[in-house]
Every structure is written in C-alpha cells, then in structure tokens.
Amino acid sequence: MSTQTSSDKITRGACPHDCPDTCAWQVMVQNGTAIKLVGDSDHPFTRGVLCAKVDHYLERVYSPERILYPMRRVGAKGEGKFERVSWDEALMDISGRLQDIIAQNGPTAILPYSYMGTQGLIQRDAGHPFFDRLGTTRLVRNICGSAGFAGSVVTNGISPPTLPEDIVHSRFIILWGTNTVVTNLHLWPFIQQARKNGATLVVIDPAKTRTAAQADWHVQPLPGTDAALALGMMHVIVQESLYDADYVERYTLGFEPLRERLTEYPPERAAQITGLEADEIIKLAKAYATTRPTAIRTLIGLEHHSNGAMMHRTIKCLPALVGAWRERGGGIIGGPAEAFFRSLNIAAVRKPELEDQNIRSVNMVQLGQALTSHELDPPIRSLIVHSSNPAAIAPNQNLVLQGLRREDLFTVVHEQFLTDTARSADYVLPATTQLEHADLLWSWGHKYLTLNQPAIEPLGEAVPNTEFFRRLAASLGLEDAHLFTSDEERIRTLLTSDHPYLDGISYEQLEENGWAPLNLPADYCSLAEGGFATPSGKCEFYAESLIAQGLDPLPTHVPPKESPVGDPELARRYPLMLLTAKSALHFLNSSYANLPRHLKAEGAPHLDLHMDDAVPRDIRDGDQVRVYNDRGEVKLRARVGNRIRTGVVSMPSGWWASLSPGGSSANALTADGLSDLGGGGDFHDTLVEVEKVMQPVVTG
Ligand code: SF4
Q1: Is 301 inside a domain boundary?
Q2: 19 lines ligand 1 (CB under 6 A)
Q3: If you measure from the C-alpha of residue 672 to the centroid of ligand 1, how many angstroms do you get, rounded to a whole number?
Q4: Is ligand 1 within 6 A of the CB of residue 518?
Q5: CATH number of the domain to which 269 belongs
Q6: Checking phi first, is residue 531 left (phi over 0); if not, alpha (psi -120 to 50) or beta?
Q7: How far apart are CA 130 and CA 136, in angstroms?
Q8: Residue 346's closest CA among 471, 442, 459, 241?
Q9: What is the DSSP letter of 353?
Q10: Are residues 309 and 373 in the same domain?
Q11: Which residues on adjacent β-strands are paired with residue 555?
C-alpha cells in the first residue's frame, strides 16, 4: 500500500534484478520525487539490507544518462549518434519498417531478444504474446539456469528442494560453484548462523572468491571437472560403505550400475582429472557422508560448460546416496521456483497456446551466429530488444557486434541507458525503471511473492515494457484484446488461482503488505521418504531418459569441449582455461557497469592468474596483458597471486566493451556452443593465452 503522511509517501516494491534474493524494498517519496530507498526490514529474507549493486538505485533512476525520449539513429551503426523524435514518429516508422519486412520475408525475419533485465512476471514477459501473435522467430531464452536445471531434473525430477532458510539446520555445507556473498548475499546470514551452530563450510570453486576466502575449506578443481570430483567422492563413499543402504534400496534407481561405474573413478583418477590431491577427495567424501545434516548449494557457476548438465546431474546424486534428504537442512538447497510457476496463473497472461512450436527458434546464446548467418532463410532482418544487453552478455562478442552493426538489420531497443546494444540500434525507446512501473515478482531464491508498486511517475517519456508492446501492437493495427490489458489486470490475473500455495494471498493484501510467503506446507521438501518427481518416482542414478538424448544414462565425466583434454590441439595454442565470473561486486550482469559510482568502486577489470602461470610469461602483478584466442582479445591488468588455481585465468563478466580498456570485454573471448542438455551456453569452455603488453592500454 502507498501510505500518505503530510508530505511523504512510502511505496512498497521489489528489486527487479536477475538475482535469487528478490529483495523487498520501500521507497520514500516527497513531492513526486523518490528521496530514499531501503530494504524492507520486516521481510524475513531481505532483513532490511540491499546489496552494493542496488543500494544506490535512486542514482540509477535519476541518472543524467537515462534515455528519456525516443531516439532515432543519425550516425553509423554502433556510433551511438541519435536524434530525439516523438513516440508517434518512431512508432509510425517502426511499424512501417516491420510491415515491409513481414511482406517481403514473413514474420520470421523478425527476432525478439529479451532476458532477465527484469525478472518481474509481467514486464519480463511483456513481449511474448505480441511476438507470438505476429509469428516471429522464437527466442530460446536459456542463457542461464537451464542446463543446471535440466541436469538436476534427470536425477531428482522437479522435486521441491530444501528451502534456503533451512540451511541453518545443516552441519556440513558445500557451496559448489557459487560465490554466495556476491551473488546470493541474503543466504549468507543463514549460513553464518549454521556455522555458529557448528557447521563446516566448504566452497568448491577454481577461484578463491570472496566466499571461498571465508570458508573453512576451499577445494579448487579445474573448471568443468566437477562431475569427476563427485564421482570420486561417490567411489569413496560406496567403497567404504558410508552410503545409506536403506535409502538407496528404497528410494533410488540404478545403484548397481552406478556402483559399477564408480569403479572407473577411484580417487587417484578423479584427482588426475580435477587437478586435486586424491587425499583431499577422500577427506571430502568422508566428511560429507558422515556429518548430518549435510547440504549442497549450487547455482549457475557450474553449468556454463558443454558438460554442464551432466555435472549437475552427477552432483545431485550425492544426497540420495548418503540419505541426506532424510533430515531437515539436508539435501540440495534451492528456491521454490516450481512452486511459483505451479501456483500462479501465468498461462492466462503469457498465453503459451498462441506460441507456434513449429516456427523456427534461435538460441539467445548464439545471437552472433544468427545475425551473421548466410544460411538462415529468411535471414534475420529485424531485432527487437528489451530487458537485455546482448552486446555485453552474449558470448562471442565480436560476432554479436558484427551482426548488430549490419546496415541492413533494423534494430529497435527499449532501454533505460544507451547500452552497447542500444548504440547499434536504429531506434532507442525509453524504458521505465522499477520505481516507475508495476510488477509481480517471483523468486528463485526464497518463497516470498512481492508486488512492486510504482513509486513515482515515469520520467520523461519512458514507458514500461508492457506499454511499449501495447503501443507497438496498436501501431501495427493489431486488435486482439489480450495485447492491450493493463498492468494491474495482468497482475490480478496472475493471482487468479485456487492453488493452495496462494491461499490467503490477494492483490489487496499485497498492496497493503508488499509481499507474502507462499503458503507452502511444512513438509514442502518431502524427499525423506522418496517420492522424487522422476519417471520412476526415485532418485535416478540410472536414467533411461538420457539414452534417447544421446547421453550416458549413468553419471559420468565428459571433458569440456574446449579444454586441454577435450581439444589438445587447441590447448597447445591456448593452454589456459578462462573463467568469466560474476565477481564484480557492484555490477549485476551488465547492469550498473555504466554508472560512475559503480565503475569507480570496481576500479578497472583485471585478469587473475596464478604465479606459476605468470612467471613463465614474464608477467608481474599490475602488468598490462593481452588475453586472446581465435575469437578475440581483451586487454587489462594482471593480478598475480593465489586467487585462481594454476592452469586457469579469470576475469569479471559484465563490463561493457565500450567502457573497457582496449574496447572489448570478457565475452570477446567466450565460446558460443551449447550445453549437453537444456540449451544453455558453454562459455566457460574457453581456452586462451596471455601475454604481456608493453604499451599502455587505452580505456574505452
Ligand atoms: S540484486 Fe539481489 S541482493 Fe541486490 S538488492 Fe537486488 S535482489 Fe537484493
């Protein structure tokens, strides 16, 4: 509810970003201007704290760099020169150009591009019914989460996870490939509580992240080898009879074939694959199997590999093997995303029945390939972007930029700032921030549903994504009623559900309180006695479903495609594995990477490399270096030390090429292949070489 005092108004809302924490916030408004924004102290997960990325959100809202009016390109593509036009002028021209393209090549010559620039349910999905109505090429929006999800589903189905708050009950916690204090900050106090209660915290990560630096035990495998680590652990657990024979007997499928498979992964072999010591694997396996309750938390760090789904699938076998699901605080920690999607009436707004599955699709990971392809028929002639900045976040950046700069590509970008993507647009249209529009927020990190209410009027001529598509639909002469429903109608429709998880939650109640927990049963995570949501109803060590997809039905280690083992010839030229991690504390993916406060706080991007890799290359701490492979190069400063293991280098993701030293950022190097399952990216399967640069690097 917006509460009015004499001169103040406090509006409740939520952070829109692609982050599991989905913080609830309150905005103080005076005379129509937002003057303060704070985390909601009553919210059990936010606890009054916003992260370093967002706690100056008002600077984003009122930034002089905001795009507040429609703009038409007047310079060359990518030059970033525009002139102000009216909405009417812009829409008339855009609709005319789209109609011409449709008449000449059909609607599939148009490609939508959007992702989690906002994860609010109505603003994120605002374009779907519009594009489905036109019959454009479909975008596979799988850049994050999909490979890990697909792999986990093979083993455990879409079974309810152990809720994050329950981690306080754990006594042995493995954060596996996740930098919690940077990307899942609000889980950290619960982990600290568990540690006060006696829990041991293990971080498995090739890099010594801020989280790893605070762990009791940091395990540093080579990237892409985590399945081998899990298999080595399982080998020890089975060989030493530390597994839960009763749980395995009752609630798992395929233990005998798994046991056979594990003979291939004695700790010595797992050590050779992972670059760890066999003793460490043995110690980890024993500690994991003998401490109760024991929990594993994974996020997306693991999945961006050609073997990403198999790594998740293999790791997710561990809890059933040791019977970790039996106790509260045991198992796999995860947000109840499935509960939101099961209970909210999303189909009534999204209208999936209007999406023609026979129409071709383009995977968002491979945008560069799609825009430069000579084989696509018809070619992509128009790109319509909202809630995403593919010039920064999509892999194989140089190919993406080459595509975006095609003179014959008609690009429309709905944005808050002149991103590197928007710089290549024909039209840039002004988008509202979270303070200026309504939305309903789910979460993939906790169980709270949040209503975001607009705190202020839209600045300039900015409009929400929903209004952008209403205007575009009208200018194209479309009349379908569902394209024109208001934002409030859409939110109310989402809540129109008799699912018990939404019992007691109404629009009015959310207006009043801002947020509400889903009404999950006390035994929401109910795998203590099996009941996995797999075809067999059991945890599937052996998964028949994988055979049809050309994969091994048993957990296995497959070398990453671009790695010293996966491609020895390539590795001779480019011997170092590159991680492009979400390590920038003040950026959220590519958001905030243009704002002065955040850029200043980050300083300059740096390449972490180990002393053992630096010395043979005559690279010292602080030297300027060139990181390169066949796809491109990035120039930045070296940070030599022990923040990354040998054989691996790491640089932060999120930087915009136009604002980076040397004019390119991490994705100039990354691979644009797909994961083994789920259609995710394999951009951590990237090999590079590094050399010292003598001349100073020019900042873009
Ligand atoms: S980015 Fe995440 S942690 Fe930061 S305020 Fe938003 S939801 Fe909270």
Answers
A1: yes
A2: yes
A3: 28
A4: no
A5: 3.40.228.10
A6: left
A7: 9
A8: 442
A9: G
A10: no
A11: none
The answer to whether the CB of 441 is under 6 A from ligand 1 is no
Q: Look up the domain containing 288 and give its range.
A: 157-334+528-549
pLDDT tens digit string along 148-177? 999 999 999 999 999 999 999 999 999 999
- Atom number in ligand 1 closest to CA 52: 4
SS3 content of the chain, % helix, strand, coil (to 5): 35, 20, 45
Q: Is 60 in the pocket of ligand 1 (CB under 6 A)?
A: no
Centre of ligand 1 from the C-alpha of residue 591, in Å: 12
> Does residue 584 sit in the same domain as residue 609?
yes
With a 6 Å cutoff on the Cβ, whether 22 touches ligand 1 is yes
**What is the total count of domains within the chain?**
3
Q: Are residues 77 and 169 in the same domain?
A: no
Residues 126, 215: one domain? no
User: Which residue of 46, 53, 446 sits with most ligand 1 atoms within 8 Å of its CB, as the best mutation to test the pocket?
Assistant: 53
Question: How far is residue 46's CA from residue 559's CA, in Å, rounded to a whole number?
Answer: 39
- Is 521:447 a contact under the CB 8 Å cutoff? no
Tell me if 173 sits within 8 A of 199, measured CB to CB.
yes
Cis preceding-peptide flag for 293 (omega within 30 of 0): yes
Low pLDDT (below 50) residues in the chain:
1-7, 700
> Is the same domain home to 234 and 258?
yes
Q: Are 262 and 238 in contact (CB under 8 A)?
A: yes
Whole-number Å distance, alpha carbon 23 to ligand 1 midpoint, is 5
SS3 of 199, please?
Answer: coil
Q: Residue whose CA is closest, atom 8 of ligand 1?
A: 23
Residues 316 and 232 in one domain: yes
21 CB near ligand 1 (under 6 Å): yes
The pLDDT tens digits for 509-565 are: 999 999 999 999 998 988 999 999 999 999 999 999 999 999 999 999 999 999 999
- What 3-state DSSP class applies to 662? coil
**Tell me, what's the pLDDT at 700?**
45
Q: What is the CA(292)–ligand 1 centre distance, in A?
A: 31
Atom of ligand 1 nearest to the CA of 19: 2
Per-residue pLDDT reduced to its tens digit, 24-83: 999 999 999 999 999 999 999 999 999 999 999 999 999 999 999 999 999 999 999 999
What CATH code is carried by the domain that includes residue 645?
2.40.40.20
Amino acid at 494: L
Model confidence over 589-625: pLDDT tens digits?
999 999 999 999 999 999 999 999 999 999 999 999 9
505 lines ligand 1 (CB under 6 A): no
Residue 356 lies in a domain: yes
What residue owns the CA closest to ligand 1's atom 7? Answer: 22
**In ligand 1, which atom is closest to the CA atom of 54?**
5
CATH number of residue 108's parent domain: 3.40.50.740
Residue 259 lies in a domain: yes
Measure 326 CA to ligand 1 centroid, in angstroms. 32
d(CA 143, CA 18): 12
- 114 belongs to a structural domain: yes
What crossing angle do the helices spanning 226-239 and 267-274 adopt, rounded to 10°? 170
Residue nearest ligand 1's atom 4 by CA: 51
Tell me, in angstroms, the distance from the centre of ligand 1 to residue 16's CA.
8
pLDDT at 661: 85
| pLDDT score for 5 | 46
- Record the tokens describing residue 267, joined without a space: 């700790």
**Distance of CA 434 from the midpoint of ligand 1 (Å):** 13
Residue 547: count other Cβ atoms within 10 Å of its Cβ.
11
pLDDT score for 662: 87
* 48, amino acid identity: G
225 and 359 assigned to the same domain: no
190 dihedral zone (left: phi>0; alpha: psi -120 to 50; beta): alpha
Which pLDDT value is given to residue 694? 82
